[in-house]
Amino acid sequence: MNSPLAAPLSTTKSISLPSHGPLRVGIGGPVGSGKTALTERLCKLMRQVYDVAAITNDIYTKEDAEFLTRAGALVPERIMGVETGGCPHTAIREDASINLAAVAEMHRKFPAMELIFVESGGDNLAATFSPELADITLYVIDVSAGDKIPRKGGPGITRSDLLVINKIDLAPLVGASLEVMDRDARKMRGERPFIFTNLKANKGVHEIARFIAQAGGLVPRELPETF
């Protein structure tokens, strides 16, 4: 099966990085889908050729930020945890001020920063990022939730810049059909790209990183094979 990755040129965003500041990449998706795993792997890969930082959102803790720190995704001072104190989608959509302030603080600390990941707290399929907060949005779902997930729709599935369908290795164990998910993702997303991944084995990480660099207008740099 061939998951489309190259976004049509007509939909590629044009971001003026020098005046805009760092490229802001929002990573959303339901609890347990693999958002933090994706953030970790992208940080470890892209930090080798770009100046990177990360912000995570949790309701009452900084658990995801602590996980990224323990995993060595970035040095601790480049990881910031935000406690939203309420519904996770509010802090990334309706009132993104707490996250915008965190991005601004990181940029002050690291003025050469080129790229910052903003991981949302786990939420339902209706959660989306404010365009003021995220220049590019990645939405992560996983095969273990069932092959019906893509056709359920929701803004994350239909309007994210890249849909990531994770944990493909579990498909045989949960009776999910990747062919059905491929068909439904194409139907729901039209020309918007999606990719099947197994983040546990780093399958798909390089492709996602290249998509971010291209769609976000980053200076093209060769990514290392291993990270």
Verbal overview:
The chain has 227 residues and is of the alpha/beta class. It has one domain: 3-Layer(aba) Sandwich (Rossmann fold), CATH 3.40.50.300. The protein has ten helices and seven strands. A seven-stranded parallel beta sheet has the order 3-2-4-1-5-6-7, sandwiched between helices. Helix 3 (63-70) links the parallel strand 2 (52-58) and strand 3. Helix 2 (35-46) crosses helix 10 (205-215).
- Integer average pLDDT: 89
Q: Please state the CA-atom Rg, rounded to the nearest Å.
A: 16 Å
Task: Give the biggest sheet.
Answer: 7 strands, parallel
Low-confidence stretches: 6-12
CATH architecture: 3-Layer(aba) Sandwich
Strand percent estimate = 15-25%
Globally, the shape reads globular
The main sheet orders its strands as 3-2-4-1-5-6-7
Number of domains: 1
Decide which structural class fits the backbone: alpha/beta
The H-and-E topology, N to C, reads as: HEHEHEHHEEHHEHHEH
The first-level CATH class name: Alpha Beta
CATH superfamily membership, which one? P-loop containing nucleotide triphosphate hydrolases
Count of separate DSSP helical elements:
10
Distance between the termini: 26 Å
Q: Tell me the total number of β-strands.
A: 7
CATH domain fold name? Rossmann fold
Helical content band: 25-40%
Keyword list:
alpha/beta; seven-stranded parallel beta sheet; Rossmann fold; single chain; 17% strand; 10 helices; 227 residues
Structural topology:
Blueprint: H1 17-20, E1 23-28, H2 35-46, E2 52-58, H3 63-70, E3 79-83, H4 88-94, H5 97-109, E4 115-119, E5 136-142, H6 149-152, H7 155-159, E6 162-166, H8 171-174, H9 178-189, E7 194-196, H10 205-215
Parallel strand pairs: 1-4, 1-5, 2-3, 2-4, 5-6, 6-7
